[in-house]
Known about the structure:
By secondary structure, the protein is α/β, with parallel strands linked by helices. It has helices at 15-22, 37-44, 66-79, 96-101, 122-129, 164-191; strands at 6-10, 27-32, 48-51, 84-87, 106-110, 133-140, 150-157. The protein folds into two domains: 1-103, 3-Layer(aba) Sandwich (Rossmann fold), CATH 3.40.50.170; 108-194, Rossmann fold. Strands 3-2-1-4-5-6-7 form a seven-stranded mixed beta sheet, sandwiched between helices. The longest helix is centred in the last third of the chain and has 28 residues, at 164-191. It is globular. Bound molecules: 5-O-phosphono-beta-D-ribofuranosylamine. 5-O-phosphono-beta-D-ribofuranosylamine binds at residues 12-17, 38, 88-89, 109-111, 172, 175. 5-O-phosphono-beta-D-ribofuranosylamine binds next to helix 1, strand 5 and helix 6.
Amino acid sequence: MTPVRLAVLVSGTGTILESFYEHGLNVSVVASDRECRGLDVARTNGSDVVLVERKAYGGFAKDFDREAYTLALTKELVSRGVTLVAMAGFGTILSATFHDAFPGRVLNTHPSLLPDFKGWHAVRLALEAGVRETGCTVHIATTELDDGPILAQRSVPVLSGDNEETLHERIKNVERTLYPEVLVRVIEALEHGDEPSSLAQ
Length: 201
Ligand code: GRF
């Protein structure tokens, strides 16, 4: 049995990554597209840290070279023997090259009950829509943004007086339990020779 080597992709505060360590997950590699608190969390916890800066490939300008960026990040993870990838607040959409290197093995968490409220502003869209309940979704990522087989969802109430920050924090609290729980199950499945898709709802 080949042990699973987990890489986590972060771009922000990395509180979900922190929850992985708290749940005892073995995070081999943490990669980011920018210097961020998430990388400090990784350094503190002794994971191998990979920084492939987006700004070296055009940053957030129109001519951002997504293909070259994706290839560079893919090479870093492949050379470290990564076999499972968990995106946890990663801010760059990767091209098909990445998904081809880790077919069906790239997971993501999204702060809404997919298929509702895809995209970067899921929490704001839920507030604007006036829904009484939203939540989070852990799914297998594909080349389509916030799409792919759903592994788990959990709902969260929207309370009167909520703003984007308070609601997002309530959702993230749930993600910090749900995502590590799903990862434990995915790793067990892989160790038994099953793919993450075997856990799809
Ligand atoms: C999470 O809500 C995740 O769903 C979204 O970005 C947030 C990451 O939070 N894609 P953190 O950086 O782990 O605190």
